[in-house]
Specification:
The protein is α/β, with parallel strands linked by helices. The protein contains eight helices and nine strands. Helix 6 crosses helix 8. The radius of gyration is 19 Å and the shape is elongated.
């Protein structure tokens, strides 16, 4: 099931779009502004992004995401000037839809953008590997020390994770990620580990 981040500060529109997407089988994560979206975008397959948001400009978020990620971004906005559309696409958006919009066309464009994502084989992860991967993705582009990772993993259900166990889990996770063709874990001596796509 594809996961979509919907960034829209109009509460009614946010709710209605989410319902339409969920009826098509998508898992929708809702955000009402830049700040909440920044904490959520690493774990989704596609972003639907308004430009004029209560706490900032969606174009700035698009630029920030594009520094580290190729995740599909669709602007959904009332900014319909040609200059806005060209600028939105130039800074890295994959599509640009203006409000008001036709629902069936909107859904078709989402499907088209999701089709462009390279398929990666499914990989089976242990509970610790999954939690480790989630934590690295949550801090995408930033190094995490071994101490930070160990502290985060400590409460993993019934599993004791020590320094040696962490090394083993990182090594196994790297091997599985290589086979899947997904992102990778970068190591830097003295800094720790970071996730990159």
């Amino acid at each position: 099931m594809n996961k979509i981040l919907l960034v829209e500060d109009d509460e009614t529109l946010n709710k209605n779009i989410a319902l339409a997407l969920e009826s098509e089988g998508y898992n929708v994560i809702k955000a009402n502004g830049i700040q909440s979206a920044e904490e959520l975008f690493q774990s989704v397959d596609l972003i639907i992004l308004d430009i004029m948001l209560s706490d900032g400009n969606g174009k700035e978020l698009c630029r920030k995401i594009r520094r580290n990620s190729r995740i599909p971004i669709i602007f959904l906005t009332s900014c319909d000037d040609e200059a806005d559309i060209v600028d939105g696409l130039d800074i890295g958006a994959d599509d640009y839809i203006t409000k008001p919009f036709r629902l069936r066309e909107f859904l078709s464009r989402i499907k088209a953008n999701l089709r462009r994502i390279p398929a990666s084989p499914e990989i089976e992860l242990t509970a610790v590997e999954q939690k480790l991967l989630d934590y690295l993705k949550l801090n995408h582009g930033h190094y995490l020390t071994r101490e930070q990772i160990l502290e985060y993993l400590w409460d993993c259900k019934g599993v004791f994770v020590n320094d040696n166990t962490l090394s083993v889990n990182i090594s196994r996770l790297r091997e599985k990620l290589k086979k899947s063709g997904g992102g990778q874990i970068i190591t830097k001596r003295g800094l720790g580990y970071k996730w990159t796509e």
